[in-house]
Amino acid sequence: MANKEIKTSIEISASPESIWKILTDFEDYENWNPFITKISGEQRKGGKLKALIGGMKFKPLVLKYDDNKELRWLGTLFLKGLFDGEHSFQIIDNMNGTCTFLQEEKFNGILVGLFAKKLETDTKSGFEQMNLKLKELAEQK
């Protein structure tokens, strides 16, 4: 079974609360998010989501929902074990009026090797584009 991990981060001049508010306003994603263009569902640990990410539909399970700190979910493609992704958004308060926003995903499964190059280019680029838009929105408020 293949594994792949992608990590990105960006510093945002905003409070954890204002970043979290944008991050959890799922209805507004289609207006600003270039990577996760649609998302809906139960925002709580154990909740089920529906997401359109990079043109692919997923139904992830929320693993962690910690207000103003972390949202983590597990998505699978078709069957568990083929191509699974544990995606997380973390907000770290730098205690100086800025936060570090971390977005990462750990991929596991039989098909991960086939997609490794695409993950490193397209998926990582999608994370970085989303991070920049989140920064732009949070710093406007």
From TrEMBL:
Gene3D superfamilies linked to this entry: 3.30.530.20
Pfam families reported for this sequence: Polyketide_cyc2
Protein name: SRPBCC domain-containing protein
Organism: Robiginitalea aurantiaca
